[in-house]
């Protein structure tokens, strides 16, 4: 980390054209006069510093070539002075202000006009409204981005400024507080190619004057409150559009997309979160577009796949989740679109067996067909025909049979979820050895069996392992010690043996659920965690069936060093299973724990143990069948309902 003195060293590089002073420890008043010798400087960016004021040279400056200035993550105490100084740079073409607060009065008649400015970006930045009125004088602007800055129509930003910029090509006004209908003056911006007014509060139907914006290539009006039937909107005449985003409004959109059949340049269409209706599809019209991306998810449709999809051959991303579409797996999408990278068909009414493409598909990276009614075996050559998959989710279907060994051919796989099916058999060795990039493996709620992993496995990237509610046997594999586990979910199996001591060395481990097994032995020692994390960890160890042999000292298991722990996450529970017995803890409760433990449920403590520990409040502990006043009669063990599983 540097400080303000770094500037004097930078000044020795007289040929510099660009300086990027990001997150280097600049603080307070930064005097840039030390950089006057850099006469060739064209770009200056200062971000992520604690700058309150920037001092430039007064009068004639040597930075006559400076064209681009960017400031971010700072609070400028005298915005008026800074803006005045910027007028001394005759070649300045671009301002970029991110997450910056300009305080102090801004007197517009004292500020330069910035008539040469072509690009202005203001994001997450608080400006005095009078500065925004200056935009009217920036007559050369070609690109404006003002986002996440809590502006509204009352700022007259459109009427007095933006709408007078007849050469404007790029306008981003997303994530502000604009309300009401679109300003009519936008009809003047006939050179506009990019318009983004998403994530505002605009209402009403799309006005007819949008038909004037015939140069538009990109239009994003998503996440507003627009209404109306798209078939009657002016969008159907904007045939130059390449990227159209209408999502999360209240439009009615025909599933055929027939209003856009003449949009030969259209590549991306996002319509999710609207109302899709069937309408009347012409038998003689075909779309002129070849889409790359399409999303019509969560639209309340109830029918077959859109017919126009059968004529598409350049698709890369398809999202028809929550579409309530019926029929078989659309393998034709894979056969017709060899460049398809992402396919999402979540929560539909698809059924029948899974089908593979005619030839191996070398582009598909993400496939999510969860929450459907697919049945039968997973095809034996599944992995060989989809070898490039990185994400695969087939959970919550009715698939049976074993997991194909060919899953090991998907060597780039990072996320695999086959949970909530009817799968049997074990985890294939080919998968366990060759899916070396796998981070999430979710196989819960099946009928899988055998050892968790074969003797040899190589899943060193594994972060989450979810195997609960199967029929796995044997011990927790020691090979998991080579992973950086964050979540381990193995409840509802038939695991035996002692808790492996390497669990205490898993510094990234956040959650363990191992209820309803037959584990035994001492609670493992955990020295690296804060007290809150430590007792949460012990809680999860105690959540398992047959824990009558799991014993240990709380004090010995934890190195309690932090009493400032949120009590909501600190609970020691010993859950009871009517089939397999109870838990016991020995030794007294260590003194630092009294301030952080909220309850010990179902754990028997002798009166002597309580007496040897600190004095406890009545609300600190709840016993199964006895009050704190009568701890001597508390049963050694007592039933409590077991917790639910904690899915990933």
* Whole-angstrom Rg: 32 Å
Please tell me what the overall shape is.
flat
**Count of discrete alpha- or pi-helical segments spanning 4 or more residues:** 9
CA-CA gap between termini = 38 Å
Q: What structural category characterises the helix and strand content? A: mainly beta
Average predicted confidence as pLDDT: 79
Quaternary organization: single chain
Poorly predicted ranges: 527-536, 538-548, 558-648
Q: How helix-rich are the residues, as a percent range?
A: under 10%
Major beta sheet summary:
21 strands, parallel
How much of the polypeptide forms β-strand, as a percent range?
Answer: 15-25%
Number of strands: 40
Protein model, in words:
The protein is 9% helix and 25% strand. With 648 residues, the protein is mainly β. It has a 21-stranded parallel β-sheet. A ten-stranded parallel β-sheet has the order 21-23-25-27-29-31-33-35-37-38, with no helix packed on it. Strand 5 (68-76), helix 2 and strand 6 form a beta-alpha-beta unit. The longest helix is centred in the last third of the chain and has 12 residues, at 531-542. Residues 527-536, 538-548 and 558-648 have low confidence and may be disordered.
